[in-house]
Amino acid sequence: MIKPDVGGIDIPPFFKLTAFDTVGSTNVEARHLAEAGAPEGQIVWAKRQEQGVGRRGRSWVSPEGNLYCSLILRPDCDPAAAARLSFLVALAIRQAIATFLNPETSLRLKWPNDVLIDGRKSAGILLESKVKPNGMMDYVIVGTGINIASYPQSTDGLPAISLKEAGAKVTVESLLSAYSYAFLELYATWKQYDFAPIRELWLSHATGVGERITVKLSDETLEGTFAGLEDNGALALILDTGERKLISAGEVFIVPPVS
Ligand code: BTN
How far apart are CA 34 and CA 12, in angstroms? Predict the structure, then answer.
């Protein structure tokens, strides 16, 4: 396998970058490295993936021109805390993308971890993890796909967008660099102060807070007002009955106001 030159990419020394032209899935490659003992900070980056994996077992179409990378973390926490890393990752992607977009562009976060440009999905995040026998994390693989040159036709029922279509002038390498710096800063905050500042920052960029939303769960669809994000990352939904429901997994759709 020919490996692209990674010498020119500016990333903080915390990371070790391993690059490929083509892999099946960077998440799978990262998992193999993690199982073989690779330390926290290892990034697997590929120009294209032949079997990119999305959420809920979907595939992630991965032609050349977009960013596909997977980062190995070894956080000293339990699975519930590790799951909240997805908010941090969405923030890091948002911050990295913002560097290259016109500041007027709408760049919002949708629960739990979508990054929307003008209401359209610009990236995908897939966390995979392994727990040690003592119940703490062995590793977390943070898989990130960011649409730079192209985008899939449909993702989770959301329209998608590429950075190019949004007017950004960005290369895969410069986005990887911006993402790595943004991630490291947020991860340092998370390690020092836990989830609280990440939650605040996430809420400050979130879409739909205080608005009517529907939430599609595995067995039912609920409608109500998006009341905010709990300390544990759950979405707080106030139903029309006044009941407050906490949602930890589901798909959110913002209900357009009736005119
Ligand atoms: C989603 O369905 O929204 C998540 C998509 C995650 C795709 C990324 S691309 C890099 C990494 N490798 C994979 O196979 N998947 C993730």
Answer: 20
Residue 1 inside a domain? The answer is: no
Q: Is 70 in the pocket of ligand 1 (CB under 6 A)?
A: yes
Domain that holds residue 28: 16-204
Q: Tell me, rounded to whole angstroms, the distance of Cα 91 from its chain centroid.
A: 8
Residues 96 and 66 in one domain: yes
Atom of ligand 1 nearest to the CA of 53: 14
44-85 pLDDT, tens digit per residue, is 999 999 999 998 889 999 999 999 999 999 999 999 999 999
For the whole model, what pTM was predicted?
A: 0.94
Decide if 244 is inside a domain.
yes
Q: Are the beta carbons of 20 and 3 closer than 8 angstroms?
A: yes
Q: Is 125 in the pocket of ligand 1 (CB under 6 A)?
A: yes
- CA–CA separation, 168 and 102 (whole Å): 8
Same domain, residue pair 57 and 158: yes
